Amino acid sequence: MAEVTKKETEETVSQQQVPEEAEHEVQLEEDQQPTNGTDEGEDQLAGEPEEVDEKEERIRELETKLQEQENKLLRVLADFENAKRRATLDKEALNKYKAQSLLTNLLPVLDNFERALAVEVKAEETQSLLTGMEMIYRNLMDSLKGEGLIEIEAQDQEFDPNFHQAVMTDSDPDKASGIVLQELQKGYMLKDRVLRPTMVKVNE
């Protein structure tokens, strides 16, 4: 009985030591786990700023490209508006001065009418002819004025190089310097555009 009791006592002691050793091993594992978990967390935190920087850089690149595309679009729209405005102005000018070529070609005809009407005649038959020519001339001038033809005033006006062409000078003490003394050839405008300046004699 004494031997059995001794054996049982040793087994009981052995069983008590095993849990203590196992518990010690478990404690070591638990002590190591937090350390490993902390290292992984630090690695993740260290990697996050790099990912954030890459995203921010990508966003800046996309914003820059978007701004460039917007600028290109604005330039294209501006060019389109300018082209549209030029086309409108050209169309308006074409309508406004559509008779320019015809009127320019008719200016020599008007000059010949004026020369013929300036001739002094005594014969009654010739006078009747001139009267008829004068009526035709007036009708023609009325029609041309309806298209925008304007005679440039020059006689006794101050010389203006925009509308007058000085081909001669003279001296008249009764008039100021730069005053037109005589019209040598009549000038004309089409609305606000000069077709031909008036050829004049100017006072010195």
TrEMBL record:
Biased composition (Basic and acidic residues): 1-10
Keywords: Chaperone, Cytoplasm, Stress response
Pfam families named among the record's database cross-references: GrpE
Annotated Gene3D superfamilies: 3.90.20.20, Head domain of nucleotide exchange factor GrpE (2.30.22.10)
Biased composition (Acidic residues): 20-32, 39-54
Record-linked InterPro entries: GrpE (IPR000740), GrpE_CC (IPR013805), GrpE_head (IPR009012)
Cell location: Cytoplasm
Highest rank taxon of the organism: Bacteria
Chain residue ranges for the region called Disordered: 1-58
Record family assignment: Belongs to the GrpE family.
Known partners and oligomeric status: Homodimer.
Role: Participates actively in the response to hyperosmotic and heat shock by preventing the aggregation of stress-denatured proteins, in association with DnaK and GrpE. It is the nucleotide exchange factor for DnaK and may function as a thermosensor. Unfolded proteins bind initially to DnaJ; upon interaction with the DnaJ-bound protein, DnaK hydrolyzes its bound ATP, resulting in the formation of a stable complex. GrpE releases ADP from DnaK; ATP binding to DnaK triggers the release of the substrate protein, thus completing the reaction cycle.
Cross-referenced PANTHER family: GRPE PROTEIN, GRPE PROTEIN HOMOLOG, MITOCHONDRIAL
Name of the protein: Protein GrpE
Gene this chain is encoded by: grpE
